[in-house]
Amino acid sequence: MINVSGTHQVNASSSTVWRIISEIDGIHKWHPKVLHSPLLSNNPTGEGSARKCEFHDGTSVVETVTGWKEGESISMVLTEMSMPMKSASTVMSVQATGVNSSTVTIEMSFEPKFGMLGHLMGLLVMRPMMKMVFKQVIKGLNTYIANGEIVDVGA
Q1: Phi and psi based region of residue 50 (left: phi greater than 0; alpha: psi -120 to 50; beta: remaining)
Q2: Known CDD domains for this protein (predicted)?
Q3: How far apart are CA 28 and CA 30, in angstroms?
Q4: How much is the pLDDT for 83?
């Protein structure tokens, strides 16, 4: 497994950040790569809730919540993905750093396809790419919090 994480500052209270990230089918509002994020489960929050992230480039991934700590973190397993990964999971957590500031940490563990070559590509290409995506996601979250407008690709 390859692990990658990023912790970034968000200009909002932890309760505001949690309200936004815990809206499972609302990730398209602040994730600049996600075009649509329809809910796939009957339950919109908590363990077992699921969404399909449909990306601007035509690819998609199904994310199912496997862990839910109210006000703190959401853990997900990724399936039905077009990325070159055998398996992947993520955790997104929020922690207050002040009245109107928080840190958001995104962690991802993944096992690339294609054996040793895939593992090497995962270390050299995919892990740095995911770190960059994490920064874009937090930038999109900050933008959405600041103006309430859905972010667009490239935000």
Answers
A1: beta
A2: PYR_PYL_RCAR_like
A3: 6
A4: 84
Residue ranges of E strands in the chain:
2-10, 34-36, 50-55, 60-69, 73-79, 85-98, 101-112
Determine the distance from the C-alpha atom of residue 30 to the mean position of all C-alpha atoms in its chain, rounded to a whole number.
10
Q: Which residues of the chain have pLDDT under 70?
A: 154-155
Tokens of 101: 């500031």
| Residue 92: both structure tokens together | 């997104």
- Looking at residue 84, what DSSP letter applies? S
**Amino acid identity at 47:** E
- Distance (Å, rounded) from C-alpha 153 to C-alpha 122? 24
Residue type, 121: M
Q: Which residue has the tokens 């993520």?
A: 90
What is the Cβ-side half-sphere exposure of residue 43, based on CA atoms within 13 angstroms?
Answer: 9
Domains of the chain: residue spans and CATH: 2-147 (3.30.530.20)
Rounded to 5°, angle at Cα 148 from 33 and 38: 45
